[in-house]
């Protein structure tokens, strides 16, 4: 009964905040249990959500709902505070589920600023930005055990003009994953690990996927991750396009596959034979430095039917146990620019 009262009070407080330009819904310090909830617009003007307490999700989510907390159809939204979203995911990870539940989802929300929020133990994704424009995410913290499945820190999909600055992400999957339809996105200064690195993809699984374009990942630190800077597409796949991608100034420390383009991605080993139909064109890896946990520091494994075009590496320095790493390249136009680069060519 207490949980129902808290749920209703949050909805009422949101309604009042939404009706007022500059209105605020505040969650004070303390612990609060809250079932799945949707905060919907449109609102009168800018709306603020301030989280200073800890909100705890139920162990058993509502069936067939893909979120715990969702903001929908809101223009001009601020989400901030020193509080924590506790997804309470431990028992959920132990069983198989078809629904990808996000702790905090933004759906059709524009002009958003998220800062300083902590998310722990999400059932699946921590943060999911879908069909949004003009989103800035500053200094968020997302943590879940290294073996927790599909607990991506931030997932982006079908969104434009996204900025992610700083923060610490340590999860059981991608620190940041970029799905189809994401354009004009800048990610900088993120600390990632453990986890599966920073990934574009996986792409090509569904019909009608949109282009991924103009993505910049700069000055991030990746430590003890299963992948580093990655682009991944299914094989076989639906058609798609990835273009104008830059990874620059990133540091890797004991990372599997520090630089990897994988166009034969098949996570469950149940893929039928064939090649990816996603074209990857115009990818730069600049000043990527540090240590690999495997001998191959650069792997570019592209589609035989749609070879990668214009892949450039400049100022890359990757070592394995103190020695130079190697690079392997398949079905790709790869150019190593400049001197004193490790690796310096495809083997």
Give the topology.
Blueprint: H1 2-18, E1 24-27, E2 31-33, E3 37-40, E4 47-51, E5 54-56, E6 67-80, E7 84-86, H2 90-93, E8 102-115, E9 118-120, E10 127-130, E11 133-138, E12 141-143, E13 154-157, E14 160-165, E15 168-170, E16 176-178, E17 183-188, E18 191-192, E19 198-203, E20 212-218, E21 221-223, E22 229-234, E23 240-248, E24 251-255, E25 259-265, E26 278-286, E27 289-292, E28 296-301, E29 308-314, E30 317-320, E31 323-324, E32 326-330, E33 332-337
Parallel strand pairs: 1-4, 2-5, 3-6, 4-6, 5-7, 6-8, 7-9, 8-10, 8-11, 9-12, 10-13, 11-14, 12-15, 13-16, 14-17, 15-18, 16-19, 17-20, 18-21, 19-22, 20-23, 21-24, 22-25, 23-26, 24-27, 25-28, 26-29, 27-30, 28-32, 29-33
Antiparallel strand pairs: 30-31
GO molecular function: polygalacturonase activity
Subcellular location: Secreted, Cell wall
Protein name: Polygalacturonase
């Amino acid at each position: 009964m207490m949980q129902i009262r808290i749920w209703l009070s949050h909805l009422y407080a949101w309604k009042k905040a939404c009706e007022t330009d500059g209105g605020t819904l505040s969650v004070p310090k303390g612990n609060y249990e809250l079932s799945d909830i949707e905060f919907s617009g449109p609102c009168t003007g800018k709306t603020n959500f301030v989280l200073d307490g800890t909100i705890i999700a139920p162990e058993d989510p509502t069936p067939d709902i893909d979120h715990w907390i969702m903001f929908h159809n809101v223009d001009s939204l601020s989400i901030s505070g020193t509080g924590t979203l506790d997804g309470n995911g431990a028992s959920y990870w132990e069983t198989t589920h078809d629904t990808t539940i996000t702790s905090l989802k933004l759906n059709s929300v524009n002009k958003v600023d998220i800062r300083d929020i902590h998310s722990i133990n999400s059932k699946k994704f921590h943060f999911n930005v879908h069909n949004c424009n003009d989103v800035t995410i500053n200094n968020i913290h997302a943590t879940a055990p290294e073996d927790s499945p599909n607990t991506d820190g931030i997932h982006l999909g079908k969104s434009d003009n996204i900025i992610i600055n700083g923060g610490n992400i340590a999860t059981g999957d991608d620190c940041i994953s970029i799905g189809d339809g994401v354009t004009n996105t800048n990610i900088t200064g993120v600390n990632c690990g453990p986890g599966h690195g920073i990934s574009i993809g996986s792409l090509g699984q569904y019909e009608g996927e949109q282009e991924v374009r103009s993505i910049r990942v700069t000055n991030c630190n990746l430590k003890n991750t299963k992948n580093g800077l990655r682009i991944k597409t299914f094989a076989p796949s639906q058609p798609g396009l990835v273009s104008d991608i830059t990874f620059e100034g990133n540091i890797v420390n004991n990372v599997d596959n520090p630089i990897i383009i994988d166009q034969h991605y098949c996570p469950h080993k149940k893929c039928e034979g064939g090649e990816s139909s996603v074209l990857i064109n115009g990818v730069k890896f600049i000043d990527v430095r540090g240590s690999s946990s495997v001998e191959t520091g650069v792997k570019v494994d592209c589609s035989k039917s749609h070879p990668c075009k214009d892949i450039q590496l400049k100022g890359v320095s990757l070592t394995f146990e103190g020695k130079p790493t190697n690079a392997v390249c398949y079905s790709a136009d790869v150019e190593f620019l400049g001197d004193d680069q490790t690796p310096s060519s495809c083997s």
